[in-house]
Every structure is written in structure tokens, then in C-alpha cells.
């Protein structure tokens, strides 16, 4: 390479680097939700907490830091920590905990929490400059009281689908909205669609700290008392009564559905039906599809398919069973032999443990039958023999 | 040949019988006829059970990022779940409802999907919305699901209130402000710092700073750095940075579309006439509080 060419090459590289550098824009950011905290009626020596989400909206990693501005800073603590690293475009759940001391006077206290995002990259060594720190301020009002409030709320009852002869799981969304610890207890009633009480369960939760909100899982046994049978498939209502001691707090009723046996534990999905590209009539065709076990139990799955030619059903085929573990996928196969040329439509599904998956479709073009050389040779030999016999017969008769 | 005649006659008759049999089979003469019994089952309108949106009907937006918010419900059709023709979802602020998405107060999902297996008459449908960080924040959101069955019978249900959490967030479009090499007593070129509102409130921008100690000699005091909300202003009429935070009076509006809502401040540094040398570095803090 000549010296002048080499110089041009180096300049081009330099331009490219400069162009890339010019387009890189570094950012530093921070976000917090919710934007204000109001902790009411907190007892001296009491406890309160609130959940927040801390976000780094920028394309660069930041170091986060929480600063408390106000004389009551020592009341507050944070989970997971007051400082740490927040990767680019990432969020963390953040808990703010207030524990005022037992000697503090009754009244309102206002402080600020400031959440900072600090760049972790190094500053360039050129002249004078400043590192930019981004911050968001969250005003906090805390009211100290000497009045004990013992209360909680059953905010919701979450009722996922259940399955016949499988424990019926519900989730109780509860929050201690008082300022002392509470021990919630619940009476759960399962009513059928005719209004007949099917099951009744009592449940007492662990102690719940003030302001804490939790989703408590509760299992309703699936066997009907005095009868050796499961709660049958059908539509029900779950009525949950929340108690504090003997006092009824509130009631929540939600619909619940018990599905047929295996509806949740035995579930599968079929995808990716594949067929060979070049096929002639009379050839064996291999159909492949992917079966995914999205249930909770091991299943045996096989592929079934309907084959249509000119909208007429010409064949139904099925393959061998394949064992598929929960959470895994496997290829299942079936074979068919098209007798005629044409474009076949294929509708396939999987049968597993007496259940069927979704159907998937594909099509395949089948060319005219091609006789193999051996068959042509045999036919030619037979034809020659027949002609020979006829000629011999005519000559001799 | 005369001996073959009876054989040919018998063979021809046999073939004729076989052909007649085939024709009779095809036309149904020799099969059992089933007399159809027609029963017409009437259509029953589908129903939408309790809807849940987000996490227990609370949506937490994420700064400068779109999040997927799901609303889901059990939809029942007593004619059979296969009779459910379409399910559409809305998540809107206020009372008007919505049919076309505006990213601010109306989200519309025209194709909700089945996300859990169910029995013969019920299916669990979920409608997904790409929820913007700047969308209106309050307790006045409503989730709605509309179902239509194969006979065009429609039903719907709503859940209210759905709360969209408030979000304070900013993104400063620079990580460092470089004033460059400055002669003693000289003023730097103007530097622009752009602040993006990544939340769902107006953000009021406050600033503070630190002194800039130099690695060879002396310190540039924080007050030597000045800012202005308007570009190309003289150093003398700009506002000096202080160690305590000061409201710049820059309010960055809440976004209402995908275009970023931003505000800029313009910065100058004047080097002291004497006593400093080398690389001088400090901090500038931009912190925002909801306006």
C-alpha cells in the first residue's frame, strides 16, 4: 500500500470513529413510583411500610442512592438497600419502612426522600467539567398518633381455575390498614350454582404488621365431607368472610370454576407442523409436529392428522405415542401415503391422555406417481413373454 | 369356441350383478336409511365475569418505558365456548369509553386472546395493552371487556376504579458537562443540558452543584457556573449555581404522545482570573419534583 493511500485509509477510520462517537449520547436518569407517601395514624414506636418501584430509564447503568432530607431521617429504612447499582432500563421493587421512636410527640412530620441516579462511567480528562446526577424527590408526610387502630381489609379474593379432584386454591388479598399488628381469620364457603353449600373452611393467617399487604394462599380440600367423591366440575361462588376476633370485617364473593379432571394438570400445545418438500404419489410422507407439555404431569402424546384432497377427506392418520415431561417439548410423528397427485390440506392435532390440543394446518403438493425402474423392467419382461407366447401359439396353430 | 359360450354368458351375468350391487350401494338402496331428527337450540348471549386489570387493578408505569398491562376475565357462553366469536378490551380514563387508542387516556385491544384452558362453556380471556409511561395518572381508569358470539349477541362488563400509579422520573440527556479548556478569566462555550420528563406529572427541575477542585492548582467555586433557561444569554445575566438546590423554574410538561417531552438549560463556566490550573471536576445535580 502506498503511503498516500495509507494516510487516506487512516483518515477514513478516524472519520468513522468520530462519526460513531458523535452519535453516542449518554444519559443519566432515575424514576420512582408512587411520587408521594402519606403514612397516617402511625403509633409511637409503631411500624409502617410502603412499596415503591425504582427505575433507571436511561441506556446506561447508574448507581442509585437514597437521601432523606429532614430531622426524622433516622426513622426510615429501606429494602433492599439505600444504595446499589441499577442496570440500564431496569426497575427494582423498593420498600420504604418507617419506625418512629416511642418518645416522639404526636403530630405531622414532613420529610423528603431523594432518589439519585449517578453515572458509573468515568469523566474524560479534558479541562473543566461536571458530572451530572439525576434525582427525583418524594415528599413524605407521617402522622404520629396515640390512638390504636386495629383493623385490616380483605381487598380481593383471587380465584384461579381449579380442577376436579385437585386442591382448590384461592388467594386472599389482605392489607392491615390499622396501626397495630392483627391476626386475620377467615371463613371460606363454596356455594354451587344452585346455592347449595358444598364446602366450608376456616383459616387463620399469620400476624400481619401495620400497613403490610399480602396475598395469602388458602387451599380448600377437594373431597366432599361424608361422601367419597370430589367437588364436581362446575361453576361455584367462593364467599370469604374476614374476621378480627369475633368481629366481621368484610365479605368478598368471587366466582370460581372447577374444570374437568386434567384441565390444568394435563395441558399441551401443538406447533410447527412440517412436511417434506418433494413428494410423489405412492411415497410415504412423514408429518412432524412439536408437542409442548404445559401442564403439571407427564403425558403420552401422539399426532393425528386429517388429509384433504380437493376438500374431500381422503385419510386420517395417527402416529406412535411419545412420553413428554412437564415443561418440555418433543417431536411427534405420523405417516401417510398419498395415492393421488395434487395439493393435500393437512389438519393436525395431538391426542394425549384422552385430551386434544389445538389444531394446526399445513399443505403439501404431491407429484404424479413415478414408477421405479425395477417395476418398469418387470412389466417389460412380462410383456415380452406374453408376446412371445402369442407368436409361438400362432405359428404352431 | 362353442364350448366357451356358456362360460362367457355366466361371467357376463356375474359382472352385471356386481355392477348393479355397486350402483345400489352408492345410491343408498341397500343401506339403512336414517331419518333425520331436527332440534333447534336457541342462542344464549355470552357473559363476562369479574375483570381484573394490572396487579389487583393497580397499574404501575415504568419511567420512559412502555409496559404491557393485561385485563382478564372468564367469559362464558352456555352454547359452548366455541360460540364465542370475538373479545375486545378497553382501558380508558374518564367515563366516555374508547374505540381508538390515543396513548394518553384510551387503550384499545381489538384481539384479546385465550390464555388458559377451560371447560366446555367458559374460557379465560386476556386483553393486552401497551401502556405508556406518560398516560394520565389517577383513580378514574376503567377496564372493559366486550364479547360477541357467533350469533352476534353481545355482552360486556367493566371494572372500576383501576388506579394508574403516579410516577416521578427524569432522564438527563448528558452524563457529564464538559466546558473544555478555558483560559484564566475566560468564559466557556455554552453547554446545553436537556432533561426528559419520564413520568406522568409535570416535573419541576431543581439544580445544585459542588465546587470544582483542580488536580494541579486551586478550586473553581460552584458560583462560577451559571445557567439560563434561554440559549445564548450573557454570563453576567445568568443565574449562579449554588450548593443548595434551587428551583430553576423549568417545568417539563407531561408527555401526551410518544414524542419525548423535554426542557433545556444552558450553562456557562467562567474560570477565575488567578489561582487555578489543570483538570477541574465537580458535580451538578438535577433533581425533579412533581409540579
* Molecular shape of chain B: elongated
Mean pLDDT of chain A: 88
Overall residue-averaged pLDDT value of chain B: 86
Tell me the fraction of residues in β-strands of chain B, as a range: 35-45%
Distance between the termini of chain A: 96 Å
Largest interface: A-B, 56 and 62 residues
Q: Sheet with the most strands of chain A?
A: 7 strands, mixed
Q: Which residue ranges of chain A are poorly predicted, with pLDDT under 50 across at least 5 consecutive positions?
A: 6-24
The main pleated sheet of chain B reads as:
5 strands, antiparallel
Summarize the structure.
Chain A has 397 residues and is mainly beta.
In words, what does this structure look like?
The complex is a heterodimer of chains A (397) and B (291). By secondary structure, chain A is mainly beta. Chain A has helices at residues 3-23, 373-396, and strands at 28-33, 37-43, 48-56, 62-69, 76-79, 83-86, 90-98, 107-119, 128-145, 153-158, 162-163, 168-175, 185-192, 197-204, 213-220, 234-244, 247-259, 268-274, 279-280, 285-293, 299-309, 312-318, 322-324, 329-336, 342-352, 355-356, 360-367. In chain A, strands 19, 21, 22, 23, 25, 26 and 27 form a 7-stranded mixed beta sheet that branches. In chain A, strands 2-9-8-4-6 form a 5-stranded mixed beta sheet, with no helix packed on it. The longest helix of chain A is centred in the C-terminal third of the chain and has 24 residues, at 373-396. Chain B has 291 residues and is mainly beta. Helices cover 8% and strands 43% of the residues of chain B. Chain B has one helix spanning 5-27, and strands spanning 47-48, 52-53, 58-59, 67-76, 84-93, 106-109, 113-116, 122-131, 141-149, 154-164, 168-172, 176-180, 191-197, 203-209, 212-213, 219-220, 225-228, 239-240, 246-252, 262-269, 280-290. In chain B, the strands form 5 sheets. In chain B, strands 1, 2, 4, 7 and 8 form a 5-stranded antiparallel beta sheet that branches. Strand 9 (128-145) of chain A pairs antiparallel with strand 12 (176-180) of chain B.
Amino acid at each position: 500500500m502506498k503511503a498516500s493511500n495509507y494516510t487516506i485509509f487512516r483518515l477514513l477510520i478516524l472519520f468513522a470513529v468520530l462519526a460513531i462517537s458523535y452519535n453516542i449520547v449518554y444519559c443519566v436518569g432515575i424514576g420512582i413510583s408512587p411520587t408521594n407517601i402519606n403514612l397516617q395514624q402511625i403509633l409511637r414506636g409503631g411500624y409502617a411500610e410502603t412499596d415503591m418501584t425504582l427505575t433507571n430509564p436511561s441506556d446506561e447503568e447508574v448507581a442509585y442512592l437514597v437521601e432523606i432530607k429532614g430531622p426524622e431521617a433516622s426513622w426510615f429504612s429501606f429494602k433492599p438497600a439505600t444504595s446499589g447499582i441499577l442496570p440500564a432500563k431496569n426497575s427494582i421493587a423498593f420498600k420504604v419502612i418507617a419506625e418512629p421512636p416511642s418518645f416522639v410527640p404526636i403530630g405531622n412530620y414532613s420529610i423528603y426522600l431523594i432518589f439519585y441516579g449517578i453515572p458509573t462511567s468515568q469523566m474524560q480528562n479534558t479541562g473543566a467539567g461536571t458530572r451530572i446526577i439525576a434525582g427525583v424527590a418524594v415528599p413524605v408526610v407521617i402522622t404520629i398518633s396515640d390512638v390504636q387502630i386495629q383493623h385490616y381489609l380483605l381487598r380481593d379474593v383471587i380465584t384461579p381455575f381449579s380442577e376436579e379432584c385437585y386442591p382448590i386454591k384461592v388467594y386472599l388479598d389482605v392489607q392491615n390498614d390499622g396501626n397495630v399488628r392483627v391476626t386475620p381469620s377467615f371463613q371460606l364457603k363454596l356455594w354451587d350454582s344452585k346455592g347449595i353449600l358444598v364446602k366450608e373452611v376456616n383459616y387463620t393467617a399469620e400476624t400481619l404488621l401495620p400497613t403490610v399487604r399480602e396475598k395469602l394462599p388458602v387451599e380448600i380440600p377437594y373431597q366432599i365431607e361424608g361422601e367419597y367423591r370430589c367437588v364436581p366440575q362446575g361453576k361455584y361462588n367462593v364467599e370469604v368472610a374476614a374476621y378480627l376476633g369475633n368481629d366481621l370485617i368484610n365479605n368478598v364473593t368471587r366466582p370460581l370454576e372447577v374444570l374437568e379432571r386434567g384441565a390444568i394438570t394435563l395441558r399441551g400445545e401443538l406447533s410447527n407442523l412440517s412436511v417434506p418438500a418433494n413428494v410423489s404419489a405412492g411415497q410415504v410422507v412423514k408429518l412432524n409436529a412439536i408437542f409442548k407439555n404445559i401442564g403439571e404431569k407427564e403425558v403420552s402424546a401422539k399426532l393425528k392428522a386429517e388429509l384433504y384432497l380437493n376438500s374431500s377427506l381422503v385419510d386420517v392418520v395417527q402416529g406412535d405415542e411419545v412420553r413428554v415431561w412437564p415443561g418440555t417439548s418433543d417431536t411427534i410423528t405420523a405417516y401417510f401415503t398419498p395415492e393421488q397427485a395434487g395439493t393435500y390440506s393437512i389438519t393436525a392435532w395431538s391426542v394425549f391422555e384422552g385430551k386434544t390440543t389445538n389444531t394446526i394446518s399445513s399443505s403439501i403438493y404431491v407429484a404424479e406417481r413415478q414408477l421405479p425402474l425395477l417395476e418398469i423392467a418387470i412389466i417389460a419382461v412380462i410383456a415380452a413373454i406374453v408376446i412371445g407366447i402369442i407368436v409361438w401359439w400362432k405359428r404352431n396353430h | 369356441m362353442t364350448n366357451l359360450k356358456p362360460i362367457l354368458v355366466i361371467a357376463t351375468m356375474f359382472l352385471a350383478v356386481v355392477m348393479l350391487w355397486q350402483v345400489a350401494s352408492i345410491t343408498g338402496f341397500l343401506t339403512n336409511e336414517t331419518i333425520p331428527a331436527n332440534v333447534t337450540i336457541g342462542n344464549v348471549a355470552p357473559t363476562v365475569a369479574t375483570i381484573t386489570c394490572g396487579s389487583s387493578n393497580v397499574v404501575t408505569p415504568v419511567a420512559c418505558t412502555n409496559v404491557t398491562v393485561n385485563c382478564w376475565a372468564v367469559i362464558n357462553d352456555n352454547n359452548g365456548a366455541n360460540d364465542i366469536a370475538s373479545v375486545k378490551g378497553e382501558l380508558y380514563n374518564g367515563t366516555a369509553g374508547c374505540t381508538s387508542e390515543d396513548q394518553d387516556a384510551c387503550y384499545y385491544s381489538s384481539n384479546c386472546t385465550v390464555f388458559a384452558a377451560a371447560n366446555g362453556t367458559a374460557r379465560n380471556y386476556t386483553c393486552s395493552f401497551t401502556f405508556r409511561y406518560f398516560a394520565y395518572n389517577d383513580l378514574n381508569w376503567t377496564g372493559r371487556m366486550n364479547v360477541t358470539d357467533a350469533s352476534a349477541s353481545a355482552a360486556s362488563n367493566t371494572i372500576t376504579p383501576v388506579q394508574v400509579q403516579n410516577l416521578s422520573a427524569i432522564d438527563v440527556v448528558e452524563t457529564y458537562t464538559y466546558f473544555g479548556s478555558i483560559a484564566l478569566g475566560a468564559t466557556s462555550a455554552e453547554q446545553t443540558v436537556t432533561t426528559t420528563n419520564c413520568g406522568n406529572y409535570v416535573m419541576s427541575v431543581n439544580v445544585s452543584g459542588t465546587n470544582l477542585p483542580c488536580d494541579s492548582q486551586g478550586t473553581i467555586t460552584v458560583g462560577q457556573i451559571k445557567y439560563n433557561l434561554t440559549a445564548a444569554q450573557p454570563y453576567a445575566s445568568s443565574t449562579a449555581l449554588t450548593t443548595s438546590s434551587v428551583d430553576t423554574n423549568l417545568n417539563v410538561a407531561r408527555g401526551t404522545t410518544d414524542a419525548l417531552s423535554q426542557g433545556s438549560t444552558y450553562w456557562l463556566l467562567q474560570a477565575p482570573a488567578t489561582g487555578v490550573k489543570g483538570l477541574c471536576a465537580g458535580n451538578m445535580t438535577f433533581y425533579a419534583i412533581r409540579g
